[in-house]
Amino acid sequence: MKLGRKITSSRGVFGVTSMLLLAFAALFSACDQGYFQAATTKIQDFRGKLLDGTISTYQAEKGTVTLIALTASWCPGCRAELPLLKQLDSEFADRGFKILMVNEDDSPRIAAKYNKAAKIPWTTFHWNYDMMNKLGNPGVIPVTYLVNAQDSIVKINVGEFDEKQMRKLIGKLVDSRESFEYQAIGLGKRITSLISEFPLFPSRA
After folding, report:
1. Would 168 be classed as within a structural domain?
2. H or E stretch covering 53
3. pLDDT digits (tens), the chain, 205 positions
4. Which pTM was predicted?
5. What's the domain range around 189?
6. Which CATH number covers residue 188?
7. CA angle 28, 33, 37 (to 5 degrees)
8. How many domains, the chain?
């Protein structure tokens, strides 16, 4: 695991600031938020080069539920969580879940070689500074961000994630999304039925 410089502060914080810090602590869970140079609660759209050389954006590649995973070929923890990522992908991919990887190797060529050797099937960006800044610029990998359909970060994990907890969170997000879509479809059918029963422009006798 690659560790960045840890940022600490000895000053006390009170009032509203304390409440904000508690909220960030809940978001980052057990991970140390000192690894992040900037706290982030929502994914801003970023642009970068995919490993096939094309340019794309987060918004173009995301799913209805997205897991962004920071990785590199030299990172043992990143390699260790690959089987777990593949299991989650197999279980939830047909329900709108998508994994996006951001590779931090020095060159796209090294990253592409790693993806091929590890049989990584997911869309993979090669890192750039703007992209990393929008992800909070963590000084450690692996890092994963679980993101909902509105691009809000539900969970950030520093280090290898807990499989059971991650599966439960993804399940709740896809269930919620499917329930919303089902209700929207039902509402649409009801409106269509009402229009057919009470036409806006009834035919004249």
Report:
1. yes
2. none
3. 444 333 333 334 444 444 444 444 444 443 445 677 676 899 999 999 999 999 999 999 999 999 999 999 999 999 999 999 999 999 999 999 999 999 999 999 999 999 999 999 999 999 999 999 999 999 899 999 999 999 999 999 999 999 999 999 999 999 987 654 444 434 444 545 555 565 555 555 4
4. 0.72
5. 29-194
6. 3.40.30.10
7. 125
8. 1
